[in-house]
Specification:
The structure holds 2 protein chains of 2 kinds.
Chain A lengths: L4 E3 L2 E4 L5 E6 L6 E7 L6 E7 L2 E5 L6 E5 L5 E5 L8 E8 L8 E2 L3 E5 L1
Chain B lengths: L1 E4 L3 E5 L4 E9 L2 E9 L6 E6 L3 E5 L2 E6 L4 E6 L8 E9 L10 E6 L1
The chains are: A mainly beta, B mainly beta.
Chain lengths: 113, 109
């Protein structure tokens, strides 16, 4: 079985540009969460989606948005990129929103120059 | 909101035992997860505690005290491959995992 897959693995963008990151959850998992991780810190929660509806949002500006598709895959969009958006973006999938184990993808390394 | 506190760094030697503490203040607490993350890799699940007490899983054990808002991860017979970050994540009902800043453990020979 495939695990959580994210694309692309690495990305370089310039300030002011827009980026779209993609995530495919484990088959059968309906919940997808997005995290931002800067070096030396734990993952910071950005969004959670379950059954195509937003179930939670972290403390991130409106430049960050996401959506979940009928097949439960998800996109994270970031507009007007800033240098500080450079980070590892992780996607996690789980079978529900309850206390179930979350499985992480390998992440997308975004560098903003 | 949540307040999660764990030490930033710890060091230990091969074969030793290390305890990584985590204190938290979480409304609607529904259990606590520990994840391991090697440098440049995704976090991987280690343990989940919902009831008070110690859960043992091989060389790793995790303890929870709900009344004290306290958990620890105990690693025995340390190996070099245990060098990683250890992330504490108290779970709030119906929400995604919220992680602490993590504890970076360095194991030396």
């Amino acid at each position: 079985d495939a695990g959580v897959t994210q694309s692309p693995t690495h990305l370089i963008k310039t300030r002011g540009q827009h980026v779209t990151l993609r995530c495919s959850p484990i088959s059968g998992h309906k919940s997808v969460s997005w995290y931002q991780q800067v070096l030396g810190q734990g993952p910071q929660f950005i969004f959670q989606y379950y059954e195509k509806e937003e179930r939670g949002r972290g403390n991130f500006p409106d430049r960050f948005s996401a959506r979940q598709f009928p097949n439960y895959s998800s996109e994270l969009n970031v507009n007007a990129l800033l240098l500080g958006d450079s980070a590892l973006y992780l996607c996690a999938s789980s079978s529900a929103t309850g206390p179930t184990e979350a499985f992480f993808g390998q992440g997308t390394r975004l560098t903003v120059v | 909101g949540q307040n999660i506190d764990q030490p930033t760094e710890m060091t230990a030697t091969e074969g030793a035992i290390v305890q990584i503490n985590c204190t938290y203040q979480t409304s609607g607490f529904n259990g606590l997860f520990w994840y391991q993350q090697h440098a440049g890799e995704a976090p991987t699940f280690l343990s989940y505690n919902v009831l008070d007490g110690l859960e043992e899983k091989g060389r790793f054990s995790s303890f929870l005290s709900r009344s004290k808002g306290y958990s620890y991860l105990l690693l025995k017979e340390l190996q070099m491959k245990d060098s990683a970050s250890y992330l504490c994540a108290p779970k709030k009902a119906g929400t995604a995992l919220i992680f602490g800043k993590g504890t970076t453990l360095s194991v030396s020979s």
